[in-house]
Structures are given as C-alpha cells and as structure tokens.
Amino acid sequence: MADTATVDRLAAGDHACLTFSDADERMDLVAAFVRDGLRRGQKVVCWTDSVAPDRLVGELAARSVRPGAALRRGQLVLATIGDPLAGPHRNGAAGMVEVLAGELARAGREGYPGLRVTADMCWATRPSAADELLAFETEVAGLFADGRLCLICQYDRDRFDGVTLAFAAKAHPRAVAAQVYHDHPLLRICRQYSPPGIRVAGELDYRHQDVLEQALAESLRLDRHMHVNLSRLDYIDGSCAGAIVQTALRLPPSRRMTVTCRRLAATVLDLVGAGNVPQLRVQRIHDQP
C-alpha cells in the first residue's frame, strides 16, 4: 500500500500516484507541484492528455503559478502525451520510459538539480493501451535510482476501472492527496495548496463550524495570504460565515484573506460584516448552472 503524502511533501526520488474525481482539486495539486518545482530551481515537465496545453497554462495561472517566464526559458515544458508517446512508433511503454530518461538527462545537461514530471495517464484508457500502462509503471522504476526524478502519475477515477486503480496504488510507493478535514457526500473541507488556503464544497452549517474553524486556523498559521475557496459551496449559514469573517479580523494589516464564492455565500458574508474588514476581499463568481 502506498504511503499517502501531501503534495508539498514530495521530494526528488518520489514516484507518486494521484487519483482524483474532482477536476478542480486535481488542478490545485498539479499547480502546487509545478509551483514548488519552479521555486526549487528544478525543471518541470507536464505531460497532459485530457486538458490541452493552452488550457493548462490558464489553469496554472489561475492558481498563482506564473508559467510565462518559465516556459520561455525552458524550465517548464507543457506537452501532450497522447499517441506520440503511447503509439507503436515509440515502442509503447519502453518508448515512454526512453523519452522520460531523455528528459532527465537533458535536465542535467541544462544545469537543473532535478526533474519534476506530472503525467496524465488518461491515454491508457484507449483500446489496447492497458498492457502498455502496466509495462510503463513497472519499467519506469529504474529511473529513480539517482534521486533526481520526481514523478506524479494522474489517474481519473471516472475513467479507470477499479482493477487498474488498485494496480496503480500498488505500483507507486507514494500516493498524493489533499489534506482533508471533513469528507462526506454533503460536505467536503480540505486544504488547497495553490493558491494556499482551504476549499469547501457542499452544504456548510453550524454543525460543522468546529471543523471549518480548524481548517481556517491551520491556514492562518501556514499561509501569509489566505484563500478560502467556496466556489462549489451550495449553502452556508450565518455562524459559519461569521467564523470566516472573524478569522479575517485576526489577520494583521499586512496580510489578507480572499474568499471566492457564488452569490448566496457572498450575500451571507456581507450580512455578517465582511464589508467592514479591510483584510477581507470577497470575490464573487457566476453561479454554475
């Protein structure tokens, strides 16, 4: 069974599996992985399949990653994995491992201390690709020997069957997941890594105020500027909205909290005094259909 780690704890030499069902949460983790690699001076390669490279640039930028300069200087590479890596002219899994080995060698020649790669594995849902997936995850293990490679393989739970997901969990020494404070079909509260803060989805009321306050307190302790993502929140009551406002009041003038939410949450926050807190900015987004 893979050891579970938060994305900020990954280091050179780690081969990790990220399984996801929430696309936004997945992008938060990918963005944090890219951001941390760039900050450490490593080379970062994103192999994407279900998200086009141009769209991925926008997703990273929306999550406090500035890809422009890194792309121009070659420290960040965004490429479609697709058929060029999985196709027979690349010799399937062996070709993919060869390409990855080449990227690792190139990063060394370019003076980078290590290489971070995140790979969207949705290519393996295509017909006849399952065997190549098994071979790739087995053969790639040899590239971690010198401790310069960090690789996250992304698996969409809605695209892969249970048997494949179980294999992926077994094949990777580490598993990547967000730190979760509360997980229930009606409410999920978890850590958001890029931009740093918390993410709340579902229905939030006084019964879970203590969990909300725990998550806010951790963000208050860890993050210079707090981001409270309520974009997937369907309901919030006055007590929980008040807890958010009270946390913002505890911030010194040099720090700020940004709350991203829909109309209903913005209205409740306004009713409990959000507009009177200089450190708090409420960023309203359009309601989703």
From TrEMBL:
<dbReference type="Pfam" id="PF14417">
    <property type="entry name" value="MEDS"/>
</dbReference>
<dbReference type="InterPro" id="IPR002645">
    <property type="entry name" value="STAS_dom"/>
</dbReference>
<dbReference type="InterPro" id="IPR036513">
    <property type="entry name" value="STAS_dom_sf"/>
</dbReference>
<dbReference type="InterPro" id="IPR058548">
    <property type="entry name" value="MlaB-like_STAS"/>
</dbReference>
<dbReference type="Pfam" id="PF13466">
    <property type="entry name" value="STAS_2"/>
</dbReference>
<dbReference type="InterPro" id="IPR025847">
    <property type="entry name" value="MEDS_domain"/>
</dbReference>
<protein>
    <recommendedName>
        <fullName>STAS domain-containing protein</fullName>
    </recommendedName>
</protein>
<feature type="domain" description="STAS">
    <location>
        <begin position="198"/>
        <end position="246"/>
    </location>
</feature>
